[in-house]
Structure formats: C-alpha cells, structure tokens
Amino acid sequence: MGPSPAFDMRTATTDFVPPSLDPGESELQHELSLIQKRDSSLSRYSISVSVLLVGAIVALAAMAAHQGTGTFLKIRLTEAIFALIALIIVFNVYTIRQEFLIKQLRAQLSDKQAQFYSLRNLSMLDPLTGLYNRRFAEQRLAAEVARTQRMGHPLALVMLDLKNFGLINERLGREAGDQALREFAARMSSVIRGSDLAVRLDADKFMMILPECATEQLNRVLSRLTPFELHWKGHEVPLQFAASCKQYQIGENPDEFVARVAQNLVTMKREGAKAPHFETLTL
After folding, report:
1. Is residue 156 located within the same domain as residue 251?
2. Which residues pair with 197 in a beta bridge?
3. Are residue 119 and residue 141 in the same domain, yes or no?
4. Which residue range forms the structural domain that includes residue 66?
5. Which end of the chain is least crowded, N or C, by CB within 10 Å?
C-alpha cells in the first residue's frame, strides 16, 4: 500500500478563515447588531415621548384646574389634553407595530443563522461520522503550522488507518462498516482535548491534529484509545488500526509534515517493521 496522498496546502494558508471570522457570520452579526440598536433606540424614544406627553397633560390639567381660568380657556385646555392623549395612543400603536417588525426581523435573522450554520457544517464535517472533513483539516493544519512557526509551540499529528476494514463491508454489509466508522470516530472524539481536531480523511483513514501537544501529552491521548469490539447482529468484530505519530519540525511546510507522517504509517504497516518513535497500536 502506498502512502496516503499528501494534502494540497499551497493555497490553504491564505484562504483559511477561522470560523469566528467567517464573512457570512460577520454579516449576520452586523445585521443582529443593527436590529439590537434599532430596538434599543425605539425603547428610548418611546419612554422619552411618553414622559413628555404625560408631563404636558399634567401641566395642562393643572392649568385647567387653576382658579380664575376662564371657561373658554378651560375648553381649549381640555381639547389640548384630549389631543395629547390621542397622540399617546397613536405613538403607542406605532411603537407596537415597530416592535412587531423588529420581532419579524429577529425571526428572519434567526432562520438565516440556522441556514448559515447548517451550510457551514456541511462544508466542514463528514456526514457519516460527524468528524471534520479533509478540506477543513487542510485549512486548520495550515493555520496551526503557521502559528507554531511564529510561537514555537509543539504540534503533533496522528494518522490512523483501520486494518482490514474492507472485510467488514464484505462479510457484514455496508451498514456494519458504517457503524464501525461511527464508533471509531466517537472514540477518537472522546480522547482528544477541546483544542484538538479529529478528522476523517477518507474511507478508513483518520487523523488527529493536536496543537501545543508535547510527546508526553501525545502518549496520554493515544493511551486513552482502549480496545473494543463491534457488536453487529450477533457478530463480534475486533477492530484494529495502525497509528503514525510525529511532532512538527520547524521549517516544514504542511505538505512535508503530512507526507512524513503518512510515510511513517506505511513503514509501520510493513510486516515486521517497527515505528521509529511509536509502536503500531491495535484495538
């Protein structure tokens, strides 16, 4: 078996945009900010106008009740009070309508956000396992390599290859194979840290990107992958994998780093060969 194809990282470094800075998300956040400002301004205007109108009504009522005020003036003041009350009613109707429109805008923005995140997840995640896909892994690894070169932090990369995975599909069917992949992916996700990345590269190959992970930490992560068997319709199938683990070397580009780890995986899988630093692991 030849080495896994190296990632094409030549454009990944410049094209990578962290999820939190995605242009689509920035646009949605800007729209939400405008709606919140509009809602806040409307509330302030509503309170201010209501206070002014109520104050005017109180002042006019006091004038109308003042002794010695003429009948004609009292009538005019009464009309003015009713006019102000009518203004308050009209303004409140307007305010209620604006609040209704703002709620509609919020609902539309919420739907747009849900669609945006759904589409983004589709572009980032493997639909079967829920792990990150190759495309996103290329971008993330390029970013982590650049960060490691700047900061000097350790960066570990692990490639895993399920052994004899094709036999599961042949003997038990594709559904059994899919379940095996899901269970293996779940176990990978359970052993990594929040800052790490678990990736499905293709049919039976996986990868873990481990930023700021020294060799001791790497050993702890790998030791958490405990043995298990796939239980499928009365069958118990032990799953095995080969693992290749390497630390990033300053000066390597992402392609070179991935190729070195992939080549080490091929070497480890050869009968009787031992890994330079890590033994082949089996489940």
Report:
1. yes
2. 209
3. no
4. 19-124
5. N
Find all residues with CB under 8 Å of 97, minimum gap 6, and list them: none
Rounded CA separation 70/201 (Å):
91
Contact call for residues 24 and 120 (beta carbons, < 8 A): yes
User: Token pair of 205, please?
Assistant: 């190959």
Indicate the residue among 104, 124, 144 that finishes a domain.
124
**In a domain? residue 52:** yes
Q: How sure is the predictor about 53, in pLDDT bands with cuts at 50, 70 and 90?
A: low
Distance CA 15, CA 139 (A): 8
Question: Cα separation of 175 and 178, whole Å?
Answer: 5
On whether both 173 and 240 belong to a single domain, the answer is yes
C-alpha count within 13 angstroms, C-beta hemisphere, residue 142: 20
| pTM, to two decimals | 0.59
Q: Are 172 and 235 in contact (CB under 8 A)?
A: yes
Average pLDDT value over all residues in the chain: 75
3-class DSSP state for residue 130?
Answer: coil
Q: Provide the token pair at 27.
A: 């646009």
